[in-house]
Amino acid sequence: MNTGGTPGAKGKAEGGRRLRARILLIAFLLGSAVALFFGSPLSRVRHIQVEGTHSLTPAEVEQAAEVPLGTWWFEVKPADVAARIQKAFPLVADVRVHFSWTGSLDISVREKGVVAVFPSGGAWYRLLEDGTALDVVRPGETIGMPLITVGAPPQVTLGKPVAPVVAACRQLALLSPELRAQLAEVHVGDSTMWTVYTVDHYELHVPAQEFAQRMQWFPQIRDQVKDRGPGEIWLTDPFRYSPFPGGKGGQ
After folding, report:
1. Which terminus of the chain has a smaller tally of CB atoms within 10 A, N or C?
2. CA neighbours closer than 13 Å in the CB half-sphere of residue 196
3. What is the pTM of this model?
4. Domains of the chain, earliest start first
């Protein structure tokens, strides 16, 4: 009687042993690779690279990130790093955080643009594109951007939005820097029509809800009426123009 089993059964048993051996070998190699990785400097933050700053410095962003060199990569939570940076700097619009296999923590930031200056309580505040008060203009400092005014200016807190002019700041941010530089003042009188005084003495009346779109019309309309001198322009459809009597300039 043959007690050695069939050739097919022996082959299956041998194949099973080989498969288990391969699995053990692969597991060993993977474990060794993981151990080598976590034992190497590549598993930790070796360098922090900051890009996209203009007003801020890379050192300021790195400090706000609160990720010491030598931190394990799995301890770095990109969303938490981004939140800390944005909390520290209202100027920052977006943050992207990426850990490279070389051990570099790459932080890319996009700063909000400063679009206007807002007078309140005897001080002038620079406003960001979302209406947040960034800082106070120093005496004698060149402004280089339009003034935003309202009937009764509220108290301003740095790092917080100035509620009455948030919409105006967002609209101003949609204008090109060249067009924005032509505006001396934007008066937010009500929610339907805003008044704009330009540096070349025109007084514009612009529908608030379509402010950025209608302001694009101004250069072309000015070219059409410039021979008659500065005046009031209603950026409605169709537009209306009324020259100032006696060559009156803008405010």
Report:
1. N
2. 28
3. 0.70
4. 44-111 (3.10.20.310), 114-247 (3.40.50.10960)
